[in-house]
């Protein structure tokens, strides 16, 4: 059985991203504006993924439970809770292992990449990218109530 063709480009993207991210640590200290530009697409992607989580989970739960009768939904609810709790524990353990091995946000790595101390003044690039960043709220419900 061959892998699905749409999974090949995404797997290649993950591998290339990891390779380029590792190579960036070997470069001399980068300019702060360049670091902001490099991290901008990732910020937008994470905001869009966070925005989709709540509607996706709620709609899938409602549509799944709507097709079940009362007796089987009790059994399915128990199974869903066990599955949810076990995957949550697995994700937490995996997160702790990755944090201990990769050390994201390590101040020593920040000084090595040139982002040691961020200046208090806001550059025009930061203001422009923040304007675009705010087009994609992290929490859709919170964004609706804030308006």
TrEMBL record:
<keyword id="KW-0472">Membrane</keyword>
<dbReference type="InterPro" id="IPR050746">
    <property type="entry name" value="DAACS"/>
</dbReference>
<feature type="transmembrane region" description="Helical">
    <location>
        <begin position="48"/>
        <end position="68"/>
    </location>
</feature>
<comment type="similarity">
    <text>Belongs to the dicarboxylate/amino acid:cation symporter (DAACS) (TC 2.A.23) family.</text>
</comment>
<dbReference type="InterPro" id="IPR036458">
    <property type="entry name" value="Na:dicarbo_symporter_sf"/>
</dbReference>
<keyword id="KW-0769">Symport</keyword>
<dbReference type="GO" id="GO:0015175">
    <property type="term" value="F:neutral L-amino acid transmembrane transporter activity"/>
</dbReference>
<feature type="transmembrane region" description="Helical">
    <location>
        <begin position="80"/>
        <end position="100"/>
    </location>
</feature>
<dbReference type="GO" id="GO:0005886">
    <property type="term" value="C:plasma membrane"/>
</dbReference>
<keyword id="KW-0813">Transport</keyword>
<dbReference type="InterPro" id="IPR018107">
    <property type="entry name" value="Na-dicarboxylate_symporter_CS"/>
</dbReference>
<feature type="transmembrane region" description="Helical">
    <location>
        <begin position="6"/>
        <end position="27"/>
    </location>
</feature>
<protein>
    <recommendedName>
        <fullName>Amino acid transporter</fullName>
    </recommendedName>
</protein>
<keyword id="KW-1133">Transmembrane helix</keyword>
<keyword id="KW-0812">Transmembrane</keyword>
<dbReference type="GO" id="GO:0015501">
    <property type="term" value="F:glutamate:sodium symporter activity"/>
</dbReference>
<dbReference type="GO" id="GO:0070778">
    <property type="term" value="P:L-aspartate transmembrane transport"/>
</dbReference>
<dbReference type="Pfam" id="PF00375">
    <property type="entry name" value="SDF"/>
</dbReference>
<dbReference type="GO" id="GO:0098712">
    <property type="term" value="P:L-glutamate import across plasma membrane"/>
</dbReference>
<dbReference type="GO" id="GO:0005313">
    <property type="term" value="F:L-glutamate transmembrane transporter activity"/>
</dbReference>
<dbReference type="InterPro" id="IPR001991">
    <property type="entry name" value="Na-dicarboxylate_symporter"/>
</dbReference>
<keyword id="KW-0325">Glycoprotein</keyword>
């Amino acid at each position: 059985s061959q892998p699905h063709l749409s999974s090949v480009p995404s797997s290649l993207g993950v591998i290339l991203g990891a390779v380029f991210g590792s190579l960036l640590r070997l470069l001399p200290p980068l300019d702060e504006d360049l670091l902001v530009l490099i991290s901008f697409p990732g910020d937008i992607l994470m905001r869009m993924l966070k925005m989709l989580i709540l509607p996706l989970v709620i709609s899938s739960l409602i549509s799944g439970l709507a097709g079940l009768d009362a007796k089987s939904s009790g059994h399915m609810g128990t199974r869903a809770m066990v599955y949810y709790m076990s995957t949550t524990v697995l994700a937490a353990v995996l997160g702790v292992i990755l944090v201990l091995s990769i050390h994201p946000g390590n101040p020593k790595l920040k000084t090595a990449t040139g982002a040691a101390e961020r200046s208090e003044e806001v550059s025009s690039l930061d203001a422009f990218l923040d304007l675009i960043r705010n087009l994609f709220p992290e929490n859709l419900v919170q964004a609706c109530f804030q308006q």
